[in-house]
Amino acid sequence: MASNISGNAYALTVLSPIKEGFTSDEKSYADTVRDRLQGWNFEENSPMALVPQTYLCRYFVLDDVYTESQPGAGAIDTFVDWLPVVPDKLRHCYWPNQDHLKSRYLVFSCNFHGGPKGDLDGYLINMWNAIGDRIKEVWGYCYGFDGVDNADKFIAYIKKCQREATLFFVGSNDDPLEEQLKALYLKQEFSKFAVANQGLDAATVRANFKEFIQSVAPTNLTAPTWVPGGYRVDKLVKRG
Amino acid sequence: MTNKLDLLDIQGNVLRAYGRFGYPVARYVFLNVRNSAEGRKFVGAISQRVTTAVEWGNGPNQKEQPPWAVNIAFTYQGLKDLGVPRASLVGFSPEFASGMKERRDILGDNGSSSPENWDPIWQGNRETREQDVHIFISLDGLSGRGAEWLSVAEKNREEAYQWLLGEVDKTKGGVVILPGHIGDNGAKLDYQDVRVVLDKEGRPTPKEHFGYTDGISDPVFEGVPYDTNRVKGRGKQLVGGKWGPLATGEFLLGHVDEAMEYPHAPEPVLLARNGTYMVYRKLHENVGSFERYLEEQGSKFPGGKELLAAKFVGRWRDTGVPLVKAPDAESNAKFAAQIEAYNQAISEARKKGDEDAVKANEQAIDDILSDFTYENDMSGGKCPFSSHIRRINPRGSLEMIHEDGDAPGSLKLSKGAFNTPSALSDRRRLLRRGLPYGEVKDRSRDDGSHGIVIMMLNADINRQFEFVQQQWINYGNDFKAGNDKEIILGNHSADEKFPSKAVIQVDPNSDEAPFLLSNIPRFVETRGGEYFFIPSITALNWIARGVVDPT
C-alpha cells in the first residue's frame, strides 16, 4: 500500500468489526468500546501519548454508513418522469437499496513517523509494548482479537483490519516526533529570548545567547523539550 | 443592473453612521416588555417616528433632515415577548437566540471583560424575565450651527428622550426602561449617552479616547445612494487596483450576498428583508494603561512614540493617514500639509458657496485616508500584521505566500489563487456605528467612565462579527502571526504565565530588526452588550400589529 506513505509519514487506517452481543449490564459491546474510549478523555492524557512517533490519531466507533439520499434528478430520471406510461411501482424497483454495515466497527486512524520505507511493524511493536493493556481494553470486543497476546499477533491482527489510506495530517512535517517537539520547544523559547534581550548591547546579547543555548541544548532531543501529546501549557515542557 | 434599495423601508442607522451626518450626540435606551399587547402598541407608536434611510435635502424624493433620529431594534427575547410566532423565531440565527453573554468564550470576553464585570443592565440581562433586554432605542441629536453646535444637539436629544418617556408612560407599566448603565463615579443611569470626543477648545473631533481617528473605512455596499463616491478602500478590492461595492446581502437580509446567495433569514421573507443584525458592545478604554505602555515601549522603539502609536493601529494619530502611504513621520508631515491645504480650500469654497469645490476637496482628503491596498506592504514592514486596521479589514492582504528563494520573512501576493484580491475578506465585513462615551479626566488612570459604544451591523453575526472577533482580533494565525492578538482590541492576558506579545515587522530586505511588543496589557475591556435584530419598516409594522405570519 504505497499510498499509505508520504515522505516519512505513514497513514494507518484500521477498521475492526465489533462483536454483536452485550455485557452483563445490558450494554452492547460497541457501546462499551465507545464508553471506554470516552473515558480516555478524562485521564491526565491520552494513552496514545505514550506511543512513540505518533503525530496524530483518532479512535471512534462507526455504527453504520450514511445513505446519501434518493438518487437526484439526472437526465434519464427526468425523462422517465415525463413518461406517464411508466408506473410508479416500476420506478420504485429501480431505486437503489440502502447500504448498511454488517457490524459496528472500531475505527483507528493514525499518522506516524515510519521512515522512508514506512515501518508499520516497528510502530505497532512499540505501541504494544507501551500500552498493551489499553489496546486490549478497546480491541477486546472485536472479532478475531481473541488470543492476541503479543506484539507479533497484534501486528498480524492490525494488518488484517488495515484499509488503504491516502489522506495525511497536514499540521506536521515528516520529521521524527522528537525532532518536531524539540523544534517547537526551541521556537517558543527563542521568542522568549528575543523579547527578553531586545535592545541590549551586542556583547550582553552574545553572552546571554551562549547561556540560552546551554540551557535549551538544541542537539539534545530528550530534554529539555515538549512532552508528546501535551496540551496543558503548564505541563508542556520536560526538563532534563 | 445595480440594486436600487427601498430607502423608505430601511431604518436610517443601517445605511448611515449618524455621527458623520451631523449628529454628534446620542442616547441608547433599553426596555423590557411586561405586557405583550401594551408592548406592541408601544412599538407601533415608536414606529411612527422611526427615521428611515430616505435621502435628506430639498430635492425630489428627499426629506428634510430631522432634528433627532429614532431607531429601534429587538433581542430574541424581545421578539418572543412581543408575540412573534415560534415558526418565525426558529428562523433567526442560533447565536442571535443565544445572545452575547452565552457566546463569551467565542468572543474572548474573559477576565476583566467577562460578564461579571459588565454594567448591571448587561449582568441582569437573560437572568430573569424582568431584567431581560427586549428593545433597543437610539436617539441621535442633530448638531446646531456655530458656537451652539453642542447645546443644540443635546437639546434635540433631550426633546427626543422626553418624547420617548411620554410613550413609555402611556403603556402604564407595560413597557419599562431598564436601568443600570454605569456613568461617572459609578452612577447608575437609565440610558447610555454617547458623544464625540472634544478637543481642548471644546470643538468636535472624529477621535476616540486613545487619540485615533475612528470609523474611516466603513464598508460600502451596493444600493446606498449617498456612498457612491466612497467605494475606494471601503468596498471590495478587485483586480487591477479597482474597487466595487460589496454585495448588499452582506449587510441586509433578503438581498443576494457575496456568495450569490440569500443570507439565512427567518420566515416570512418580509419579516427579514431590508432588516439586519446588530451587535451592541460597550467597550471601556484603559487610557492609563495605554499611555503608560505607549510611553514605555515608545522610548525603546527605534521610530519613536508616535510612530509606535501609529503601528498599533495602522494610521497616524494626528492625520489618520495610513502607514502604507506614510510609513515615516516625514511622509506623514507631507500628507498633513496636503490635508491642511484641502481643508483651507474647503472653507474658502464654503464662503463662496461653491459646493462642487467643497465636494472635490473633501473627496481628495477621503482618497488620502481610505484609498489604499496592502500590495506594496505584503510583509507588514509598514503596517504590522497585528495592527487594528489590518486585522479588522485586511483588504487584499490575506492572500499572501512565501516561496523558495524569497527573502527570509518576506511575503507576496498570491496571484491566480482567488478571483479577486479581497476574496478572503469580503464575507467578514462589518458596518460600524456608534460613538465614544464619557470623558477622560485623568489620562494616567484606567478607571472612570470612558470608552466606545460600538454597534456592528451584518447579515450573519457568526460569519462576520464573531469570526472577526475570534480569529482576527484574539488570534493571529490567518495573518501568519501565531497567536498574537490585535494590539488595541485583543483580550491580552493579565496572567504573567501567558504574556501577550506582538511583532512590529520591518522590511525584510532591510537590516532593521523586528520590534517585539511584550507583556501587552488589556487596553480595551467589554462592559456589556447584546445581539439585536433591526427590522425593516414593513416588519416593524407587522411586529407592532402582531400580524407576523410565517404560514
Written account of the structure:
The complex is a heterodimer of chains A (240) and B (551). Chain A is α+β, with helices and mostly antiparallel strands and 240 residues long. Chain A has helices at residues 29-40, 75-82, 88-93, 120-139, 151-161, 177-197, 202-216; strands spanning 5-6, 9-18, 54-62, 104-113, 162-163, 225-226, 237-238. In chain A, the strands form two sheets. In chain A, strands 1, 2, 3, 4 and 5 form a five-stranded antiparallel β-sheet that branches. Helix content of chain A is 39%, strand content 15%. The longest helix of chain A has 21 residues, at 177-197. Chain B is of the alpha+beta class and 551 residues long. Chain B is built from 16 helices and 17 strands. Chain B has helices at 12-15, 36-49, 76-81, 86-89, 94-98, 104-107, 120-124, 149-170, 269-272, 287-298, 305-313, 329-352, 355-370, 388-392, 462-473, 537-545; strands at 25-33, 68-74, 135-141, 175-177, 181-182, 188-189, 192-195, 236-237, 243-244, 276-285, 400-401, 412-413, 431-438, 450-458, 502-504, 515-517, 524-534. In chain B, the strands form six sheets. In chain B, strands 1, 2, 3, 4 and 7 form a five-stranded antiparallel β-sheet that branches. In chain B, strands 13-14-10-17 form a four-stranded antiparallel β-sheet. Chain B has a two-stranded antiparallel ribbon with strand order 5-6. The radius of gyration of chain B is 23 Å and the shape is globular. Chain B starts with 11 loop residues before the first helix and ends in a 6-residue tail after the last helix. The A-B interface holds A 191, 194-195, 198-199, 233-234 and B 300, 497-498, 501, 515-516, 518.
